[in-house]
């Protein structure tokens, strides 16, 4: 088997059994990146020298008998994560020269366990987008069909896993940015509960919605990654101090008697027929495995996208104020302070980011604040309550991840509203603050991956991973590889 | 027409915490620019604020000491505006639901009735950095940003518009200053900006109940300037109205050199701060237990202490007022009394000799070389006749210089008071013989000369003669 197609588990066993060294695995990955990168464009920065140094030190650890599941595993992370001494652009021109003096807490945890960083992955600028087309560093292509988008905003993170450019990756999810690209690229993607993983050192888009999560080849890898990154961080006041379960240990508990909710608002008429077929098949699989289905209602679903685009943009308008050309990042040649602000930001930000800053600024402006921001917060509470009420009757929910498989590059770039609707099934989960994952659940008639979304209770990642694992054992969707 | 000024004050109190409000950097003043910074106070991407608990404790203390209610669930908000000294492009402050609300202070302007001034709110916030112009070590002649001060904790204390004169404003401000320094939550240094004030001033015709348009005067940093700025502003507004003009709502700056205020920006130019709850910080929940614990920990406040000095120690109001000027001064005085000194005498010495010596040497009561116990011992030596009051001053100067105990100084320098009538009589006889003319005058009915003889005797005895004995013997001898 090719090294670059291995899962974390497989490679871990090979490393531990000394069949292969981390340096060899890392070199193989770097070679693979070099060969497919011109077609896929998953990376903004590749760090071969640093990777090989890290791999060597991982090999030394393994030789000493310190072999955590992540030790020596070559992986990559979205460019939204700060990495000390390594360019961190967040997909934006305004950070085209930003070399951070510190690293994101979640990446530090993986690094401390000996994970090897191959590079930084492409993404929509400041994580604003569903297609990776808003990146200032070129659009990543879907490894299953290079004319299509990989999804976004963690498009590079999903494409790198699908194109075998990394064993696993980290992404962030504000409105579906892990799950939607995972679905489009046929990998497993988990958005943990808000507060489960530290946001420290992750460039903020919408602080009350952003959450860090893994993208992997299978559910077991997802459990390993989550175990490594989850937990309270005193540097993030919104991270929650609740124990991290041993997710891997309970993976095989099965789904017998599991109550799965089917929110009727998610099975709409406009759903792509291929997606509908995949959902029906998935329901059938779970039935066969002993799960029970309950039809439920999340009545405020219709308002989720509008609510999201008020809250997320409001927070973003404030979060992105620090990119002013004063202390770091792009500074335009200018005449005076105001001119420097205006030019630096005009040149540094792309169209989608500007659109969202303007939307958010408007929503917070005096005279509009109550009508937009405050109203949106109230609706957010209603949406949260929808989930709380529904979860009284069910253990997890099953829905599509996206209404359609991956669309063509350029298809929606000039129609922001259409683009925003691609996140219609993922956004409510972020507003509710709970967890959800995307699993490979089939292919369209044209051979594009289709994802299945499982939504869990707050801090119910254990149940999600169990349900995901059971599905994966009963199906073969996750084994199929993009032919690139 | 006569006009009634209406004044409200917003006071920024810099808190005396070791570290900043949202990160672990030092708050020490005067360090190398940008040496006390980290990703959080530099506003780097990805950095997140974590609230310093000490700041909350200080805010609760300030609230309880100004009769405020403590908000059980208070919220941090972002105040958004662009400025190079504001690294995140927003200031973390409180807007809705500040930590303290609905308090008051009772003030008294000399010669007027006491008056209650409402305190609308006290909220916590971070300070900005500062811009440095024209003294950069780097290339170019641009301006620099020093972020050492960024993220330093502040309380903003907002009064109701209850103040009616510059005198009331200054009394209120001094009282607030005394409370925060007394609590030890602020060093009170106005020059360094640890305690600074914005004044909202308007005028309306006497008898009117319709408030005039107000101007806000920014960053006035001494009691004297507050008085000047408010008085100038009142006069400016009255003149403007009398001349047929109207006062516009605006922000003005006070120029201490000219004593005038000038326009900084108008209402139209005012920022829309787009306040909204900061999603990086969770709501601050303060339990009743926490509030009660803080209440227990509060020191006796200046006003209570003044009352006790008067009621329990029999001090007159004027003495008690002076002795509570600062907590350390009051502590010093009280330690002297506890060590056995007579309250009135200790008070006089603290207000007199001690204060003089502190001023002369430029030291503060905290580092006073004479301990309150030593002062009490000195006073005992006067009381029991060991030394005279005059000699006591000599002994005190020596105590100040050497730190030695008073009885040692008395012994070493032979300063014991002379009460032996034989010895004193001898001196008197000599003096009378040398000043026969004055003796005649006295005997002729000019009793004023008595003082001259006392002085001469004391001088001849080098101040050691017991004045009571001197008086008695002199009287007898002069009368012949």
Short description:
With 484 residues, chain A is α/β, with parallel strands linked by helices.
Figure out the total of helices of chain A: 15
**CATH topology descriptor of the largest domain in chain A:** Amidase signature (AS) enzymes
Distance from N terminus to C terminus of chain A (CA atoms, Å) equals 16 Å
> Can you summarize the main beta sheet of chain B?
9 strands, mixed
Number of distinct beta strands of chain A: 11
Portion in beta strands of chain B: 15-25%
Radius of gyration of chain A equals 21 Å
Spans of chain B of at least 5 consecutive residues whose pLDDT stays below 50 are none
Which architecture of the largest domain in chain A would the CATH scheme give at its second level? Alpha-Beta Complex
Q: What's the number of structural domains of chain B?
A: 3
Task: Choose one word for the global shape of chain A.
Answer: globular
Oligomer: heterodimer
User: CATH superfamily assignment of the largest domain in chain A?
Assistant: Amidase signature (AS) domain
Biggest beta-sheet profile of chain A:
11 strands, mixed
Helix content of chain B: 25-40%
Rg of chain B, rounded, reads 30 Å
For the largest sheet of chain A, list the strands in their spatial order.
1-3-2-4-6-5-10-11-9-7-8
Tell me how many strands of chain B there are: 16
């Amino acid at each position: 088997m090719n090294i670059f197609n291995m899962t974390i588990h497989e490679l871990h066993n090979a490393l531990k059994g000394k069949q292969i060294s981390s340096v060899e695995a890392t070199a193989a990955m770097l070679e693979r990146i070099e060969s497919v990168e011109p077609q896929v464009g998953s990376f903004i920065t590749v760090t071969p020298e640093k990777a090989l140094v890290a791999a060597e030190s991982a090999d030394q650890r393994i030789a000493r008998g310190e072999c955590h599941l992540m030790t020596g595993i070559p992986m990559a992370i979205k460019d939204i994560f700060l990495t000390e001494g390594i360019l961190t652009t967040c997909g934006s021109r305004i950070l085209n020269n930003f070399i951070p003096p510190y690293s994101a807490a979640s990446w530090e945890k993986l690094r401390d366990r000996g994970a090897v960083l191959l590079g930084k992955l492409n993404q929509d600028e400041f994580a604003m987008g569903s297609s990776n087309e808003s990146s200032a560093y070129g659009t990543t292509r879907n490894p299953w069909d290079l004319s299509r988008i990989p999804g976004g905003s963690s498009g590079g993170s999903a494409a790198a896993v699908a194109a075998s450019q990394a064993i696993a990756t980290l992404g962030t999810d504000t409105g579906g940015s892990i799950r939607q690209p995972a679905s489009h690229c046929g990998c497993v993607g988990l958005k943990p509960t808000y507060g489960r993983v530290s946001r420290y050192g992750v460039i903020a888009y919408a602080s009350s919605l952003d959450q860090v999560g893994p993208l992997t080849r299978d559910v077991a890898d997802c459990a390993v990654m989550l175990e490594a990154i989850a937990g309270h961080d005193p540097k993030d006041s919104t991270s929650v101090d609740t124990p991290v379960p041993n997710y891997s240990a309970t993976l095989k508990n099965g789904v017998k008697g599991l109550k799965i909710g089917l929110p009727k608002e998610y099975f709409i008429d406009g759903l792509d027929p291929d997606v509908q077929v995949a959902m029906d098949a998935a329901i059938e699989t779970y039935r066969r495995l002993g799960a029970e289905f309950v039809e439920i209602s999340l009545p405020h679903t219709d308002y989720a996208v509008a609510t999201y685009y008020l809250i997320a943009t409001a927070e973003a308008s404030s979060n992105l104020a620090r990119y002013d050309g004063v202390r770091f990042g792009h500074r335009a040649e200018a005449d005076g302070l105001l001119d420097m602000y205006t030019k630096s930001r005009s040149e540094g930000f792309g169209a989608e980011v500007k659109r969202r800053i303007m939307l958010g600024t408007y929503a917070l402006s005096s005279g509009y604040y109550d009508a937009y921001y405050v109203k949106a917060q109230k609706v957010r509470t209603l949406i949260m309550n929808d989930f709380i009420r529904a979860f009284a009757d069910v253990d997890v929910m099953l829905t599509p991840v996206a209404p359609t498989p991956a669309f063509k590059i350029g298809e929606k770039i000039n129609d922001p509203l259409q683009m925003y609707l691609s996140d219609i099934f993922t956004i409510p989960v972020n507003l509710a603050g709970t967890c959800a994952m995307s699993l490979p659940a089939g292919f369209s008639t044209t051979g594009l991956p289709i994802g299945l979304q499982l939504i869990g209770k707050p801090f119910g990642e254990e149940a999600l991973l169990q349900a995901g694992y059971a599905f994966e054992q009963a199906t073969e969707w996750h084994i199929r590889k993009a032919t690139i | 027409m006569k006009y009634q000024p209406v004044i409200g004050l917003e006071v920024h109190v810099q808190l005396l915490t070791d570290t900043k409000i949202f990160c672990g950097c030092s708050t020490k003043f005067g360090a190398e620019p940008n040496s006390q910074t980290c990703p959080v106070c530099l506003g780097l991407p990805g950095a997140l604020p974590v609230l310093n608990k000490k700041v909350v404790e200080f805010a609760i203390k300030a609230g309880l000491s100004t009769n405020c209610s403590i908000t059980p669930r208070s919220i941090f908000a972002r105040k958004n505006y662009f400025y190079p000294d504001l690294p995140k492009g927003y200031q973390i402050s409180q807007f809705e639901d500040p930590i303290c609300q609905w308090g008051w202070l009772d003030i008294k302007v000399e010669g007027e009735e006491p008056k209650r001034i409402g305190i609308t709110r006290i909220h916590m916030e971070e300070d900005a950095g500062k811009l440095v112009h024209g003294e950069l070590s780097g290339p170019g002649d641009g301006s620099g940003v020093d972020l050492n001060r960024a993220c330093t904790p502040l309380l903003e204390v907002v009064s109701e518009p209850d103040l009616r004169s510059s005198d009331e404003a200054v009394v209120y401000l001094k009282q607030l200053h005394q409370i925060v320094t007394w609590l030890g939550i602020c060093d009170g240094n106005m020059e360094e900006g640890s305690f600074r004030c914005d004044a909202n001033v308007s005028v309306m015709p006497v008898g009117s109940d319709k408030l005039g348009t107000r101007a806000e005067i920014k960053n006035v940093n001494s009691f004297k300037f507050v008085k000047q700025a408010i008085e100038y502003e009142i006069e400016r507004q009255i003149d403007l109205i009398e001349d047929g003009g109207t006062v516009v709502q605006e922000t003005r700056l006070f120029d201490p050199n000219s004593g005038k205020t000038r326009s900084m920006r108008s209402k139209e130019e005012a920022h829309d701060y787009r306040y909204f709850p900061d999603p990086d910080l969770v709501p601050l929940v303060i339990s009743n237990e926490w509030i009660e614990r803080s209440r227990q920990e509060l020191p006796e406040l200046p006003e209570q202490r003044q009352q006790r000095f008067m009621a329990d120690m029999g001090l007159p109001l004027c003495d008690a007022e002076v002795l509570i000027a600062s907590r350390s001064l009051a502590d010093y005085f009280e330690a002297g009394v506890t060590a056995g000194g007579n309250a009135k005498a200790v008070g006089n010495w603290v207000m007199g000799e001690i204060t003089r010596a502190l001023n002369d040497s430029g030291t503060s009561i905290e580092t006073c070389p004479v301990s309150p116990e030593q002062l009490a011992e000195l006073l005992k030596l006067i009381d029991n006749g060991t030394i005279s009051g005059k000699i006591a001053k000599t002994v005190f100067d020596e105590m100040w210089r050497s730190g030695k105990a008073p009885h040692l100084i008395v012994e070493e320098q032979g300063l014991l008071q002379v009460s032996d009538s034989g010895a004193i009589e001898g001196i008197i006889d000599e003096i009378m013989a040398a000043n026969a003319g004055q003796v005649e005058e006295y005997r002729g009915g000019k009793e004023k000369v008595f003082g001259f003889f006392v002085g001469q005797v004391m001088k001849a005895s080098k101040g050691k003669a017991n004045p009571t004995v001197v008086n008695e013997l002199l009287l007898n001898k002069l009368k012949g």
